[in-house]
Amino acid sequence: MKSQRSDCPVSQSLDVWGDKWSLLIIRDLMFAKQLTYGDFLKAPEGISTNILATRLLQLEEHGLIEKLDHPDSKAKVLYRLTGKGIDLVPVMIEINLWAEKYFTIPADRKAMLKEVKKDKDGFIKAGMKELRKG
Asked: In what order do the strands lie in the sheet with 77-81?
């Protein structure tokens, strides 16, 4: 791993997950819990295979995701968030709330955010608990 650019917490965090692809990988794992390499390639943003491989490795090296044996295929692995990755749920909720304020977002995401606004802390705790169950 590279050395830190500074002692600033924002800078240190961005060094780990601050590129758009890492956050999208984390997003996909938050909603799906476990995904294969091929599942990530199907995301609408169209990540290339070399970038995906690099980002998955970096996220694993930083301890945000882990690889699991695929129950149906020895040739595939499953990826899932670790506790450290799950701890980004509140950050992702805040990004979604910010985006809702300034962009047009899909109806299903609007519905989720409506639930978030009823009890943000409860929603976040429940979501994190569900992800930790695996």
From this structure: 34-35, 77-81, 65-69
